[in-house]
Amino acid sequence: MKLILLSLLPAASAYTWFTNDGWSKPADFNSQACASNPNTRYFCGTLAGTRGENPYPNAFPRGRNTCTLADTLGRGCNWKGATGIVVCC
């Protein structure tokens, strides 16, 4: 009976990252994973919370997966009052 009830629960789509609409590529210390991909785009963003929630929905409204840290020094970015990190997706 429990298995049937669990299968009726709605499926949740959890994102790993939440980002803005775009950011500039780091001028220096760009990660190899980002630099070697000609189709990559850069964003300022933050990791999802422990329950998959967006900690800054006004600043980082776009949910994304498979992003990589772009700045190898881990320098932050600021957008609409929130501090994030530069990632490439």
Give helix and strand order, one letter per element, not per position: HEHEEEEE
**Biggest sheet details:** 6 strands, antiparallel
Tally of helical segments: 2
Quote the average pLDDT. 86
Low-confidence stretches: 1-12
Helix fraction by DSSP (H/I, runs of at least 4): 10-25%
Radius of gyration: 16 Å
Number of domains: 1
Strand content: 25-35%
Ends distance: 42 Å
Number of strands: 6
- The geometry reads as globular
Q: Based on helices, strands and strand pairing, what is the structural class?
A: alpha+beta
Chain-wise SSE layout:
Blueprint: H1 2-7, E1 17-19, H2 32-35, E2 42-47, E3 62-64, E4 68-69, E5 76-79, E6 82-88
Antiparallel strand pairs: 1-2, 1-3, 2-6, 4-6, 5-6
In short:
With 89 residues, the protein is α+β, with helices and mostly antiparallel strands.
Overview features:
89 residues; alpha+beta; six-stranded antiparallel sheet; 11% helix; globular; disordered N terminus
Plain-language structure description:
The structure is a single chain. The protein has 89 residues and is an alpha+beta fold. Strands 1, 2, 3, 4, 5 and 6 form a six-stranded antiparallel beta sheet that branches. The N terminus is likely disordered. It has one domain. Helix content is 11%, strand content 28%.
